[in-house]
Amino acid sequence: MDGITRLFHSVILLIAFVAVNDGRVVKVPVGPLMHVEGQAVSIRCSVSDYEGPREQDFEWSMIQSGYKLLNLVSTFNDSFMGPTVRDRVNSGDISYMRLGDDSVELRFKKVRATDSGVYRCSTPSTDSVISGNYQADVELKVIGDRLKVSTAIPKSAVSEGESVELQCNSTRGFTEHTFLSVSWSLKKESGLLEEILTFGPDDKIKVGSNYIQRYTDGGLRLDLPGGGFYGLVLKSAKPSDQGEYVCTVQEWVRQGEERNWRKIQEKSEEIGKVEVTPTD
């Protein structure tokens, strides 16, 4: 009796496995996808476990008002587009790119705030039996470019041994689920930036390789009073600290199944030049 029961359970599990894993699978990225207005944007769609021709076709639509579909682009029907997006499709502002027989990208040259919404990728059936999923949805959020960076050096000429303060202030419109990182760098004669210290986007601190010992010894100090103000203090200035300093602010979101950090925009401003007078 126990053997029959175990066999019965095994058959049930096998049927459940086949039901879950059998059939076409259409996939898009895990959303929401957040981008800044004016940027180029691409959204990938792929299909697997299908029958029929190796090269599959795709259609992209946007869901309006929760249920109405606005047709965008199709890999096999040139007249698929809706009248309100015809000019953008014909100009190439909205297009698609095949990445392979089983994948395609929806592309925007310059995404607009009005492009925020839910996008649907569909694949016509080429299967002998309808099984699996034939469409997948992902939300796109487009935010305005409101990130601004301003900088200051309260005292740009110091004697060796004095402290130098590098101020970097950022302002932005309220944006849900975005985070900032701030980096201070020293511009070398080659024009390359030597990273001093980065704060964020997860409140962690990353120190440039040439400044690790100095940070460990307390020679670098963050000043974070809030309100978009970020300050870095270089204690006991050295002649090697002389040069042009740059502040870089980056805006980040967590995205994908693993919720990894993804940068959505970056802005840099020169803080100014620091002169260090050596002491005898």
Would you mind describing this structure in some detail?
- The radius of gyration is 27 Å and the shape is elongated.
- The strands form 4 sheets. A 6-stranded mixed beta sheet has the order 11-19-18-13-14-15, with no helix packed on it.
- Residues 5-21 have low confidence and may be disordered.
- It is mainly beta and 280 residues long.
- The chain contains 3 helices and 19 strands.
Q: What's the average pLDDT?
A: 87
Q: Helical element count?
A: 3
For the record, the CATH class of the largest domain is Mainly Beta
- Beta strand count: 19
List the helices and strands and how they pair.
Blueprint lengths: L1 H20 L3 E3 L5 E4 L4 E8 L10 E6 L3 E7 L11 H6 L2 E7 L2 E6 L8 E6 L12 E9 L4 E5 L4 E3 L4 E8 L7 E9 L5 E7 L5 E3 L4 H5 L3 E7 L2 E6 L8 E13 L4 E18 L3
Parallel strand pairs: 2-9, 11-19
Antiparallel strand pairs: 1-3, 3-7, 4-5, 4-8, 6-7, 8-9, 10-12, 12-17, 13-14, 13-18, 14-15, 16-17, 18-19
Quick summary of this structure?
This protein is mainly β and 280 residues long. It has helices at residues 2-21, 86-91, 212-216, and strands at residues 25-27, 33-36, 41-48, 59-64, 68-74, 94-100, 103-108, 117-122, 135-143, 148-152, 157-159, 164-171, 179-187, 193-199, 205-207, 220-226, 229-234, 243-255, 260-277.
